[in-house]
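FAQ

Q: What does a record look like?
A: Structure on top, sequence underneath. For example:
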């Protein structure tokens, strides 16, 4: 019986990862609509998708209850992340749209619970294995969708020819393939699954290029450099210090060059210097943030279709803006300075603990936490993945935060191996 339960959990975990990544269902229910088909996207019936999310919440809650002692121990390790989730739920009290905030806060709690389950059920190595399996499925079906069902897998209209695979937009495929490539990149040094990881990495990069998502491509290039830098931190200090100083010098020179020539580089690459209108959007968002700076407009309330605040920005932009295209600005709109401050403290604490694990262990798996936090920071410069309900980035962040803080022995010893098998509930 325990073996069957173990298999069920494995299937449930991989299925949930794919759903939280945004794969399959949104694209199917929209009928393969493109960005310009806004009326079709809005008119689509997503009730079945909501039902799937509710099912995941319920199953997750049951699995957490079965391991309640372990869950309580892990929750005690990190109160900052729990606090910011409570703050989001409490924002219904001052929300611009209380009903929306209540519904979306419940979804945020449900999403966070899955991250907590993932952290308490699997070791860091097993988390990477589950993520690799899930993204292996995503990569396979993204190729199938684009090649055999181009109506669904390839965009038309404004972004004609760009692949979107099993996702609703090319930028979502790009963002997920940058994440997928970073997961497989960590696995390329694993002797047991090295060849499969290299295959996954290669195919993820191919999809990343075919998505034509410039920001996602730039994100992965930066992540690859960060991956190499993180490994340098494990060198002997006599080699580590000069190597890091050289990288810092090169990085500062490159940053200075980009700052001075950014507009010219963007124009030569055929890109808009305003980042497709994002810079104007950020200015308008900052203006609204200034009107309610401390507590924001309530979690998920600002960008509602009937919100007069969002309506003014959409009118000025000339298109249906879904969010601020910047995670920090969106969170400031939702929870204000106080909410953002608590979350940044949580991210900082997770990063520090992840660095200790990186320095004092030898397993490549412990490169993953800092690599993901870097990915999350980079992704939120032009998109929004901070505290987003039903979003894989938030799931993984919650998982990593609780994972690194619930393994204090890993700071003083070699890598912790705590693989759960069929007897994990004993």
């Amino acid at each position: 019986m325990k073996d069957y339960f173990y298999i069920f959990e494995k299937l449930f975990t991989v299925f949930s990862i794919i759903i939280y990544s945004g794969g399959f269902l949104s694209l199917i229910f929209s009928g393969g609509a493109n960005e310009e088909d806004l009326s079709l996207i809005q008119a689509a019936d997503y009730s079945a998708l909501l039902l799937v999310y509710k099912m995941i919440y319920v199953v997750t809650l049951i699995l957490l209850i079965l391991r309640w002692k372990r869950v309580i121990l892990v929750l005690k390790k990190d109160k900052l992340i729990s606090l910011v989730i409570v703050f989001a739920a409490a924002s219904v009290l001052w929300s611009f749209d209380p009903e929306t905030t209540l519904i979306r806060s419940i979804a945020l709690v449900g999403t966070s619970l899955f991250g907590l389950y993932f952290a308490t059920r699997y070791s860091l190595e097993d988390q990477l294995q589950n993520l690799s399996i899930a993204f292996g499925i995503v990569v396979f079906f993204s190729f199938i969708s684009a090649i055999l069902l181009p109506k669904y897998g390839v965009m038309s209209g404004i972004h004609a020819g760009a692949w979107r695979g099993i996702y609703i937009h090319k930028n979502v495929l790009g963002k997920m393939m940058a994440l997928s490539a970073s997961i497989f990149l960590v696995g390329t040094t694993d002797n047991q699954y090295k060849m499969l990881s290299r295959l996954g990495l290669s195919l993820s990069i191919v999809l990343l290029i075919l998505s034509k998502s410039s920001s996602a491509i730039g994100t992965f290039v930066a992540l690859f450099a960060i991956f190499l830098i993180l490994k340098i931190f494990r060198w002997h200090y006599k080699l580590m210090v000069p190597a890091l100083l050289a990288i810092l010098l090169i990085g500062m020179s490159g940053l200075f060059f980009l700052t001075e020539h950014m507009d010219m580089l963007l124009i030569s690459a055929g890109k808009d210097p305003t980042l497709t209108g994002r810079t104007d959007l950020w200015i308008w968002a900052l203006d609204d943030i200034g009107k309610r700076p401390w507590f924001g407009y309530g979690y998920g309330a600002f960008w509602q279709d009937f919100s007069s605040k969002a309506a003014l920005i959409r009118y000025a932009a000339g298109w249906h803006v879904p969010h601020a295209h910047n995670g920090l600005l969106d969170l400031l709109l939702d929870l204000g300075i106080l909410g953002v401050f608590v979350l940044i403290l949580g991210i900082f604490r997770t990063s520090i603990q992840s660095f200790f694990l990186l320095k004092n262990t030898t397993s490549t798996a412990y490169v993953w936490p800092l690599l993901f936090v870097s990915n999350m920071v980079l992704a939120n410069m032009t998109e929004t993945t901070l505290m987003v309900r039903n979003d894989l980035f938030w799931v993984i962040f919650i998982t990593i935060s609780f994972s690194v803080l619930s393994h204090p022995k890993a700071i003083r010893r070699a890598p912790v191996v705590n693989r759960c098998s069929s007897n994990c509930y004993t």
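Q: Is there anything notable about this one?
A: Confidence is low (pLDDT under 50) at residues 409-426.
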